[in-house]
Each structure stands twice: as C-alpha cells, then as structure tokens.
Design brief:
mainly beta, Jelly Rolls, six-stranded antiparallel beta sheet, 2 helices, 9 strands, globular
Amino acid sequence: MSQKAYTEDVLRLAQENENFRQVLFTTERSQLVLMSLKPGEEIGEEVHEGIDQVLAFAGGEGEAVIEGNRSPVRAGTVVVVPGGTRHNFVNTGSVPLKLFTVYTPPEHPDGTTHRTKEEADEYEREHHH
C-alpha cells in the first residue's frame, strides 16, 4: 500500500488551529494531530497502552504531568511519552496552548475533529474500546 506523503507548515497549522483535536494525517503506523487547549483546560490524565506519543508545542504555556512529575512546556518544547506512561497536559497560561502530536500507531479514526474537549469526551464515552 503506497500512500502519498504529507508536507505542511505544521507550526503555522498548530498556531492557527482552534479545535481541541484535529487529525491531520494518518498512515498505517502513525498519526499527526493538532490540539488546542483553552486557558485552564487540560487533556485529562490518560495512558495509551502500546502507543507512543510525541508532542511538540507551538504556542502558549503549560505543564506536562508525566507519572505525577510536572515540567513546563511552551513553544519549542517536545515531550515524548512512551506507551504505558501516565500523562496529562495542562494550559497554565492566559492564551490557548497550541501543539501538534504524533501517535505511533494511530490513536484516533482518520479525519476526526473535536471542536471542544466536551465533544471529545462525549465521543470517548460512546466509542470506548
């Protein structure tokens, strides 16, 4: 299965993104997703078994909480979360926290867009595997 490649200015896309979650591109083995957290909002503590996640921050400021340890994130910060690691990300600033993230293998159905965290949580409840 040959699939076309994806080439975009992901920093600009992440900075312009206002959706809580927007899947940009999915292959058999990886997935590129934009996220934007409102001030005070968090992704919510989670663990992905068997899925690694790389997050790169493009704007705003916040906190990574990895296995209970907190560290600051801002534009330019990259966080690599190995599968099975408890993690959460919190917007501690006064502007949206913008990021893009790569899951290997994919975590969400291709084409997924959740405008808000509420929408994402509702989807999770209805489709929890």
